[in-house]
Amino acid sequence: MAIELVPDWMSNLEEEDVAFIKKFILASGSLKEVAAQYGVTYPTVRLRLDRLIQKIRIGEDVAADPYIATIKRLAVNERLDFDTAKLLIQEYKKTRSGSGM
What is the CATH T-level fold of the domain 1-61, as seen in this structure? Predict the structure, then answer.
């Protein structure tokens, strides 16, 4: 695939995320096999996959609302706690609905 055809959600992933996706695909989607390759437990790999899924979903949300996508990304990357992220998004939505948007 030519670089200009890479979807936005994929271009926003880090190299380690892409490497994880590659291992996951080569392991035919077996989280157990991926866990063995990384030398970690199944729940650790499951958590990593869940976070990767969140990153991809956030990447798709950027077009809809970049501010909310940024807050979600900070929470997924553990740079902002979940409760604070939720509060910021709620307050932001209140101000948008109050301004007639």
Answer: Arc Repressor Mutant, subunit A (1.10.10)
